[in-house]
Amino acid sequence: MPHLHLQLFNQLRQWISPKDKRHLTVFAEIIAAILLTQNASLSRWIPRLSHRNCSGRSHMERLSYFVHNPRITAEVFYEPLLKQLLGSFGDSKVELTLDTSILWDQFCLVEVCLIWGGRSITLSQVVLEHGSATVSFEQYKPVLEKALALIPSQCAVTILADRGFVHTEFIRWVTQQGWSWHIRGKVDTKITVASGISYSAQDFCPPSDEAVLVPSVTILEDISAHLAVANVSDAQEPWIVLSSSPPTLQTFALYGKRFGGIEPHFKDYKSAVFQLLDTRLRDAQALTCLVMLLDCAALIATVLASIAIKLGQRSFLDWHSHRGLSFLQLGLRAISRWLHRGEVLPLLSPLPAKSPPTAFASQRKRDELAYRIEFSKVVSFSYKPTSCLLA
After folding, report:
1. Element (H, E) at 120
2. 231-240: string of b/e by CB count within 10 Å (b at 16+)?
3. What is the pLDDT of residues 169-221, one digit of tens each?
4. What average pLDDT does range 236-258 have in this prediction?
């Protein structure tokens, strides 16, 4: 049976064509090493490389050169693979997340991801040397533009973003693309109602276990929006959701998908799977390349998990009676099983456009996921909040 990196090379060369063909060979070796070691540290990959009678130091220098090489980009290596494996999405409805994650209080990872299967699949990303999770629109606009180019033009897109993205330029940009948007607002966000009176978003916060829906408001001086505010007893603070769609209770359910998608995704990269925080790289360009390599490995593992399930092999990988593992974890186990049994990898094929249900490891977790928040009172305002809320 060919080594894993040779199997990957034979499949990936259909879609990935770097100017220097040697780069694809090294790329396949690295992706295989990431899948086998489940680690982002370059030094951990060395035992999994094709040794070519090289010392460990020589391999380390070669790996460092690769991740610092400006020609090793997502445009060349990740995007062709992603376009191929998202080929079935066509005119589907998709939800995206835009979020940031801080690395060592020195770098900021900005990502646009596709919510799928209870996790997120990276569309585009960049690592900035920036110690804050708050970034300007000009800094993350290129990430949005790359994501736009990767999504089939017929898709109906909704983007979900945290409170750090309440930016006039961002909302205008997504509106120009025909995307819907749901953004979490801050308590001091200025809300102007139809009567022309302005309030802070916190003025609309209701008592515990109640919700307030305020259609047709203005934010950021001239942006038309809708407001939904919920005070859930289990949450640390009220949910303030600004959106392009008229507010309903489903506004909260839709925005809630962001938490189930992007936060476990960042955890997979930083601690649960790839241990990104253990890497010693401290260069924004090299870290952007490293995260791109992790994106490739995660995407391949996710696709192989989907194939393993189609082949009826989930029960060999997951002891739960239902799917209790993420597609990333299932894919990593499937690869290990196929290699152990001397079997070759199945041919990579597009993911199904319909997102599978979220995995749950226990009945308690399933109940949490299925739990529907019941509000004791829902108030909808046509033009202004009531005095009881302003008290």
Report:
1. strand 119-128
2. bbeeeeebbb
3. 999 999 999 999 999 999 999 999 988 999 999 999 999 889 999 999 999 99
4. 91
pTM above 0.85, yes or no: yes
- Please, how many CA atoms are within 13 Å of residue 189, restricted to the half-sphere of its CB? 30
Spell out the domains of the chain, with CATH numbers in brackets: 4-77+294-364 (no CATH), 87-263+378-390 (3.30.2170)
Q: Quick one: DSSP state of residue 388? A: H
- Alpha-carbon distance of 85 to 349, in angstroms, equals 6
224 pairs with which residues across the strands? 218
The residue with tokens 């995206």 is 96
* Amino acid residing at 172: R
Lookup: tokens for 61: 């220098």
Tokens 């928040």 sit on residue: 373
| Nearest CA among 119, 121, 271 for reference residue 111 | 121
Mean pLDDT of the chain: 91
Place 342 in a pLDDT band, splitting at 50, 70 and 90.
very high
The rounded distance, in Å, linking the Cα atoms of 150 and 169 is 21
Q: CA-to-CA distance for 311 and 328, rounded, in angstroms? A: 17
How would DSSP label each residue in 245-305? S---THHHHHHHHHHHHHHHHHHIIIIISS-GGG-----HHHHHHHHHHHHHHHHHHHHHH
| β-bridge mates for residue 321, sequence order | none
CA 288, chain centre distance (Å)? 15
The DSSP line for 3-72 is -HHHHHHHHHTTT---SSHHHHHHHHHHHHHHHHH----HHHHGGGS--TT--HHHHHHHHHHHHH-TT-
Taking 3-state DSSP, the helix, strand and coil percentages for the chain, each rounded to the nearest 5, stand at 45, 20, 35
Output DSSP code: residue 355: P
State how far the alpha carbon of 219 is from the alpha carbons of 150, 171, 186, 298, 337, in Å.
30, 11, 12, 38, 53
